[in-house]
Amino acid sequence: xxxxxxxxxxxxxxxxxxxxxxxxxxxxxxxxxxxxxxxxxxxxxxxxxxxxxxxxxxxxxxxxxxxxxxxxxxxxxxxxxxxxxxxxxxxxxxxxxxxxxxxxxxxxxxxxxxxxxxxxxxxxxxxxxxxxxxxxxxxxxxxxxxxxxxxxxxxxxxxxxxxxxxxxxxxxxxxxxxxxxxxxxxxxxxxxxxxxxxxxxxxxxxxxxxxxxxxxxxxxxxxxxxxxxxxxxxxxxx
Length: 238
Known about the structure:
Blueprint: H1 6-10, H2 15-18, E1 24-28, H3 33-36, H4 42-54, E2 59-63, E3 68-72, H5 81-87, H6 90-100, E4 106-107, E5 115-119, E6 125-129, E7 141-149, E8 162-165, E9 175-179, E10 185-190, E11 196-199, E12 211-220, E13 233-234
Antiparallel strand pairs: 1-10, 2-3, 3-5, 4-12, 5-12, 6-11, 6-13, 7-10, 7-12, 8-9, 8-11
């Protein structure tokens, strides 16, 4: 499924901790482009999203001043399932463990808050840090996020870049890095009290296009330095 052996990526894993403003890593073209193209169509994903809603699947709508997205975490009938299963596999999780140094990483097979994310025109995701505890397994702490972008021919003028901030805007923070949500781009980052991220600018893509990604989250029994129990904290609300 992937273009190169994991050893190729592990050899460069020191980049993870040297990247600012918090540990992260960007991998382009990890997956076979032709096969991944089967799930890159916004139209197809949109139709599946509507089917998921009508079939009573695990679909969540986030529509407020800080969020505008569709999240599907029960997707057995979608083509994306095999990619999510790979990202949650022991092989990939072991790779994340070796790269991040976080022992005992556990993938969330229920994709709480994750799965397939689709943001329509006009949507956004405010700068935030993530919730710290798994809602169904409270003994587990959130430690790592993986995002796989599915957007072909994404235009800069549509906005939608993943922004990494050094601290909240209201506390003098600034955006340190912008990551374009390009097709077959994998972004890995640790979750902590300093991992401020989001795509806060209103999407200006055409109505028939959505910003699409797969999101998988990983936990461990040991917390990061953020050992306080809290839900998602948005910078705009601090």
